[in-house]
Amino acid sequence: MNVGISEDNGLFSCSIWRPQGKSYLFFTQFKAEVKGAKIEYAMAYSQAAVGAQNDIPLKQEEFEVTETTVSHREGKFRFELSKLMIVAKTPRDEL
């Protein structure tokens, strides 16, 4: 897992992945939730980049993104998840 923050402290990023990429273990479901921020971007991958290969994203119909969660879609998710990436924006207090 890797967590980052932008220079202005407005955006947070979180990447969760399997260190070895593919595995004989599989997910039947998944859900990641953000508290205190709104998701600006999220992507789920069936295979994480290895060597010269790029990340392979899940099809959009396999997962859903709301303002605060990223989760599998029941009946659409094919049980292949190697990496999940989320970028969230914190609310700003205006003076």
Automatic annotation (TrEMBL):
Coiled coil, from the record: none
Gene Ontology process terms (BP): positive regulation of angiogenesis; positive regulation of endothelial cell proliferation
Name recorded for this polypeptide: Myeloid-derived growth factor
Any single Pfam family the record assigns to this protein: UPF0556
One GO location term (cellular component): extracellular space
Domain of life of the source: Eukaryota
